[in-house]
Design a protein that fits this description.
There is one protein chain. Helix content is 39%, strand content 14%. A four-stranded antiparallel sheet has the order 2-1-3-4, with helices on one face. A hairpin with a 2-residue loop joins strand 3 and strand 4. The radius of gyration is 19 Å and the shape is globular. The chain contains six helices and four strands; from the N terminus they run E-E-H-E-E-H-H-H-H-H. The protein has one domain. The protein is α+β, with helices and mostly antiparallel strands and 241 residues long.
């Protein structure tokens, strides 16, 4: 049952044989933390924190015996373990404000969905991107991801400095470094799950997320000039004669 303190995102995958698979993610409305419903009994070895542990992980096994992302992945990815990346599927994503629909490849749909788990399940590295989930944009392109990441970063810097009465210092390398850490975790998660599936849809969905992180980081490291065209009339307004 949904409470007033919940924020829900629903995904439905519709396959050519008319079968469907449904997933519900319930988040705390304020913290945007995932309210887990996973039965942690009898989870496979690859969900344990020390199994293929990410090199930049700051968690300790005595406090967190399970990887917070991997334990949430299990029941999701188990649904697609025999599936292949380019299977055609219809995906419906529902957020409180609207509904999204796309006919796409299975890997694209899974990638969009597990991005929710990544930032909300408690991974200290991936949680830096959590604010983006409040305005979750399914099937985002690399340019949309760059724009949203940069916008969230700027807003965060503004709020951090607002009460100090100083202008924030904007160093895009700071965000690029954060995304580099995200990429390390994405590859670590891929290493965890590579043996669980006979198909390639699960592993490739993670590689798509990692690709977006790398592209966004590259754009930021190069002065975010690739997005300048969006503001050209405002950055360099034409002079009327």
């Amino acid at each position: 049952m949904t409470s007033d303190d919940d924020f829900e995102i629903r995904y439905q995958f519709r396959f050519p044989d008319d079968s469907t698979r449904d997933f519900l993610f319930t988040l705390d409305k304020d913290s945007l933390a995932l309210k887990s419903t996973v039965d942690t009994n009898n989870l496979p070895e690859w969900t344990r924190l020390d199994y293929h542990k990410c090199s930049n992980c700051t968690l300790k096994a005595e406090d967190n015996p399970l990887c917070p992302v991997a334990k949430e992945y299990y029941y999701i990815l188990d649904s697609f373990k025999a599936s292949f990346s380019f299977e055609e599927v219809k995906v419906i994503a529902k957020v409180p404000e609207r509904v999204y629909f796309k006919e796409t490849s299975l890997q694209s749909g899974i990638s969009s969905m597990i991005g929710i788990v990544n930032v909300t399940s408690g991974c200290p590295v991936l949680s830096t991107l959590r604010p983006m989930v409040r305005y979750h944009l399914p099937f985002a392109s690399s340019e949309e991801t760059t724009f949203r990441s940069a916008s969230v970063f700027l807003l965060k810097k503004y709020l951090q400095n607002k009460d100090k009465g100083v202008l924030p210092k904007i160093d895009w390398q700071e965000l690029a470094d954060e995304l580099e850490q995200v990429s390390i975790v994405n590859l670590g998660l891929a290493g965890r799950i590579k043996g669980m599936s006979s198909g390639d849809a699960n592993i490739n969905s993670l590689l798509i997320l990692d690709g977006f992180a790398k592209i966004t980081g590259f754009t930021l490291e190069n002065g975010i000039e690739e997005l300048r065209y969006l503001f050209e009339d405002h950055v360099n307004p034409s002079q009327e004669p």
